[in-house]
Amino acid sequence: GARPDLLLLDEPTNHLDASSLAFLTERLRDHAGGLAIVSHDRALLRDVASEFLDLDPSSDGRPRLYAGGYEGWIEGRDAERARWQQEHDDQVAEHRRLEQAASDARDRLQSNWRPEKGHGKHQRATRAPGIVQAFNRRVEDLEAHRATVPQPPLVPGWPESRTRAGRPLVDVEAVKVEGRLVEPVSLRLAGGDRCVVTGPNGAGKSTLLAVLAAALQPDEGRVLVHSDVRIASLTQEVPSWDARLTPDQLFAQAMGEQGVGDVVSLGSLGLLEPHARHTPVARLSEGQQRRLHLALCFAVRPDVVVLDEPTNHLSAGLVDSLTAAIRASRAAVVVATHDRQLLRDLADWPHLAL
């Protein structure tokens, strides 16, 4: 209301409802002064931001400034990431080539060279200095080569579900939960099915998702989970893990308790850096803990994926990758979210209004 020359906003959309978000967006678009925003809200960024200062890790450790709005940022970031990966791959390949050259030279130096029959033994002595010099040059080349481009950040890998299209998975019949899901809800899920659960706060979206994931028993109705069906549930907040354990230990524990085969390793999912995987959970950021929760969900190659506010604490790039993965998955996917951009991205999915 004071019409300042410069607005500095740190996650301004937190805890706002739909009408408040619309009001805020309109006022920011009409603001005549300068505007700087820190936000994970992709819809807000698309609607109001013209330039993006990206502070994520880069090949030279410096921030990047991208013009062209949200799309310009995404395109520029992806191009930068591709260049970084190519430069790193080139340097790794060159180092391996130099290692092989040094190894070949060492083999020639160590082998017992023998002249052809009829030649004198002095030929061996004549050739030996050249072999030594070649070996020394290869070793010097190897020692002089230093990788100047660091390892790029990991790229998330989303394993494919093992289910088949149309396979019956879960039947929910007229379920009600006292004080939390008042109106009876019925839903049937088969392989490849999609559903976005909508409704105001308190309508029972999280309750329904908990019933679907077999984490909550309904007071009325019934839930039938077909045999050998794997359900992965991402709740709004991470579970209460033993904070002393590392992600690697939690992952091994969870996979052992579930007793499922053909799981995907934590490292191959690309959601946690190696150092984070060996750090106690208590010392991980909210975003790292959220990515660990995602890894636990997708590692089992689930038949049913239940996502409750999946964009919480995740970067825009990771959310875009997750969105693409669930749109392409063979699993049945159920999502409850207030994220405006995710709702736009899933606008063509069937909606269940509570």
Q: Describe the strand arrangement of the main beta sheet, using strand numbers.
A: 9-10-11-7-12
Query: How many separate helices?
Result: 10
Largest sheet: 5 strands, parallel
- Strand portion, in percent? 15-25%
Helix content: 25-40%
Low-confidence stretches: none
Output the radius of gyration. Answer: 28 Å
Quick one: overall form? globular
Order of helices and strands: EHEHEEHHEEEHEEHHHEHEHE
Summarize the structure.
The protein has 354 residues and is an alpha/beta fold.
Could you explain the architecture of this structure?
By secondary structure, this protein is α/β, with parallel strands linked by helices. The protein has helices at 18-30, 42-48, 69-110, 122-144, 205-212, 247-258, 274-277, 286-298, 316-328, 340-345; strands at 6-10, 34-38, 52-54, 64-66, 168-177, 181-190, 194-198, 220-225, 231-234, 304-308, 332-336, 351-353. The strands form four sheets. The chain has a five-stranded parallel sheet, with helices on both faces. The radius of gyration is 28 Å and the shape is globular. The model has no long low-confidence stretch (mean pLDDT 88).
